[in-house]
Amino acid sequence: MNSRSATLALGFSSIGHFFAHLMMLLYPTVVLALESGWGMSYGDLLSLSLGGFLLFGLGALPAGWLGDRWSAERMMLIFFLGTGGAAIVTGLASGPTGLSVGLAMLGLFGSIYHPVGTAWLVRNAENRGRALGWNGIFGSVGLASAPFVAGALAQLISWRAAFIVPGMLCAAAGITMWCLMRGGTMLTARTDRRPQPEAPRADVVRAFVVLSVTMLAVGLVSQAMSVGLPKAFAERLTGLTNGGILGAGGFVTAVYLVSATAQLVGGWLADRFALKAVYLVAWAVQAPLFVVAAQASDGPLLAAVMAVSYLGVMATPAENALLARYTPERWRATAYGAKFVLSLGVSTFGVALVALVHDRTGSFASLWLALAGCSIVVVVAGLFLPGRLRSRPAPSLAPQPAE
Questions:
Q1: Is residue 399 part of a domain?
Q2: For 236, what's the count of Cα atoms within 13 Å in the CB-facing half-sphere?
């Protein structure tokens, strides 16, 4: 495979990461615009998205298997075109049933990206940590853009535009990729651009068991944070937002924009230090920050959430590199599919938890404390990962061992 095709693959993988997160997180902000017009509670409206979030995770395993056995490139085409079309359908929904169906379609097509796009990226990357870091920035920008894009389009045009406009752009990216593939500019990669030796079977099994636990806990934190922040900021940053939808969405955007740079930091650390150490230290610091968030408001709450988000994002390249290190190349997309079944599918309980906690208590204090407990679970389980916890520099030009 030539370098131009590899560069295009890395580029479209990153664009896909942007749209995967943007599309799935439009609705938590759109909900704020629907509350007054649809006569439903926040919890009931948010629950309409449960099917979409569930399929976003559960669809990852079959999508990853198809990426390994059929074609990663063709699966990415289906992702772009299907996700864009589903967003347009969601924007045209006439009631709660149509909206929930549209969101479910959005989740199903969106589930393709993480297992297939991440494995596609790893296959085409020379320096995995750096490539995962840059790719992660696009995902973080998608996370950051979603509340602002949804808030701005909903407030300036209508909530329907918040889905239709991004859907058209996503479909356009898919059409562009199809033209490049059809013209022979973008070729299929069959093997890793920079292969690494396979890990011992005992380490593979051990890492899979441990990462299954940690990725579930990480997914619960990520889902609950991304879904709950617009509402939490609308209620607890009143000194900064005056209770407006656009203001709350804007501060959520600020949180994710600040944390976007953490992907590069995490990628740099993943290429140079023990992956296990990078992963665990990043999560160990988050537990006390969640405790602070449970009691804070306005500026202190914003600062605590920004720090938590930064550290969580910083740990992502190390987590993905660990999974790549302990997975045979021929099963990599399937392994990432299993990861996202846990981190995005099973952790849909995080979405239900947000709705339940808020409707029963009227605040998110209990939620922040539960997420502190999840952080502790990640650290304790992560201590059993293969390799040493000691962080030491690794040779910069040689394939990096996972430690």
A1: no
A2: 25
